[in-house]
Amino acid sequence: MRTIAVINQKGGVGKTTTAVNLAAALVRAGQRVLLIDLDPQSHATLHVGIELGSEDRTIYDVLVRGAAIAETARLVDDRLTVVPAHLDLVAAEIELADQPERETVLARALQAYHEHYDLMIIDCAPSLGLLSVNALAAVDEVFIPLQPHFLALQGLSKLLETVTMVRDALRPALRVSGVVFCMSESATRLAQEIYGDVEQFVRSAEPETAWAGAIVFNTRIRRNIKLAECPSFGKTIFEYAAGSHGAEDYRTLAAEVLAMAQPTTARSMPESAVLPRNPSAAASAAV
Ligand SMILES: Nc1ncnc2c1ncn2[C@@H]1O[C@H](COP(=O)(O)OP(=O)(O)OP(=O)(O)O)[C@@H](O)[C@H]1O
Ligand SMILES: [Mg+2]
Fold first, then answer.
1. I want to staple 226 with a disulfide (CB 3.0 to 4.6 A). Which of 9, 101, 151, 244 is the partner?
2. Among protein residues, the one whose CA lies closest to atom 31 of ligand 1
3. Max CA-CA distance within the chain?
4. What is the pLDDT of residues 136-176, one digit of tens each?
5. Hey, which of 7, 16, 244 would you mutate to test ligand 1's pocket, going by the most ligand atoms within 8 Å of its Cβ?
6. Is 75 in contact with 271 (CB distance < 8 Å)?
7. Mean local confidence (pLDDT), 78-92
8. Residue 285 pLDDT more than 60?
9. If you measure from the C-alpha of residue 147 to the centroid of ligand 1, how many angstroms do you get, rounded to a whole number?
10. Within a domain: residue 278?
11. Which residue's alpha carbon is nearest to atom 25 within ligand 1?
12. Which is more confident, 282 or 227?
């Protein structure tokens, strides 16, 4: 299983939009994907249309109460499984604080699932706290979404420092493998300069750094109103507007992601081990 964290502590740069729609595009390319919402804002959960009941378990239960991933996972599409989040995840940082090995709780919870999926994607919160450290300790690859803005690179050194720290202490295979520009407006000169600066920065990485060998994806996700609209319908861009620029861009990005490395062969998770997107709705539909 390829394991990818979509992370940038800067808010609103396109992490969730990328995690959800890249996952959906990869599914359409035949991959079995596990998407984990690791953000208390629960935007990825809402984006895929999961409605949580008060008894439903989430990633919080995995991290704090030792629940199995399978107890929380929802089958959203044939090959897309989502582990949802809820606002209560805010408390996890504090509740985990005095647990031993608190940085690797997620990595350990995921160990049993490596052969069930081709790819796992984690949508991270805009922070570099314990939740994000858990994400980094659970993956081999980091994708960094950036907006081609004046302040795009601000904070990047702190993020790269954190990735390096987690690599050195917890996850030797961890590396930044890709940078993806989101909400791209290639017509502006400023944007062109930023694309150039980021390319240059990545190309000149010293071999021992955690971002050596990273690529800036050729696919830039254009600003597209359909991408902004689809979360409120609980749909991915492919369910909402399959012919839009947004769908086209995430489809192209998925092809680039798959070209980066051979996906591993995987067996699918037994269906009984995952709940449908909305179990109660599915149950009533079945009656
Ligand atoms: N390519 C795009 N075109 C238009 N709107 C976009 C695009 N990508 C993201 N958006 C919108 O921009 C806003 C921020 O995007 P998103 O939620 O993906 O960012 P984020 O990095 O996950 O934010 P946060 O840090 O709060 O988790 C959202 O309203 C989203 O719908
Ligand atoms: Mg988000």
1. 244
2. 228
3. 61
4. 999 999 999 999 887 777 888 899 999 999 999 999 999 99
5. 16
6. yes
7. 95
8. no
9. 10
10. no
11. 11
12. 227
Mean pLDDT score of the chain = 90
Distance 285 CA to ligand 2 centre (A): 31
The confidence score (pLDDT) of residue 280 equals 52
Distance 172 CA to ligand 1 centre (A): 31
Q: Is residue 67 part of a domain?
A: yes
Ligand 1: distance of its center to the CA of 261 in Å? 27
Task: Give the distance (Å) from ligand 1 centre to CA of residue 208.
Answer: 32
Using DSSP bridges, classify how beta strands 275-276 and 74-75 pair: parallel, antiparallel or unpaired.
Answer: parallel
- Is residue 273 in some structural domain? no
- In this prediction, residues 26-33 reach a mean pLDDT of 97
Which residues span the domain enclosing 188? 2-267
* CA atoms of 26 and 136, how far apart (whole Å): 21
pLDDT band at 265 (very low <50, low <70, confident <90, very high): very low
Which atom of ligand 1 is nearest the CA belonging to 11?
A: 25
DSSP 231: G
Residue 41 CA to chain centroid, in angstroms? 14
Total tally of structural domains belonging to the chain:
1
- Which protein residue has the closest C-alpha to ligand 1 atom 11? 228
Res 59: pLDDT? 98
Count CB atoms within 10 A of the CB of residue 114.
13
Q: How far is CA 12 from CA 92, 126, 177, 189, in A?
A: 22, 8, 21, 22
Q: What are phi and psi of 178, to 5 degrees?
A: -150, 145
Distance 183 CA to ligand 1 centre (A): 8
Query: Is there an atom of ligand 1 within 6 Å of 11 CB?
Result: yes
Nearest atom in ligand 1 to the alpha carbon of residue 223 is: 3
**Average of per-residue pLDDT across 220-229:** 97
Question: Domain for residue 197, yes or no?
Answer: yes
Q: Which residues surround ligand 2, an ion (CB under 5 A)?
A: 15-16, 43
Where residue 95 sits, what CATH number does that domain have? 3.40.50.300
Structure tokens at 142: 């980091």
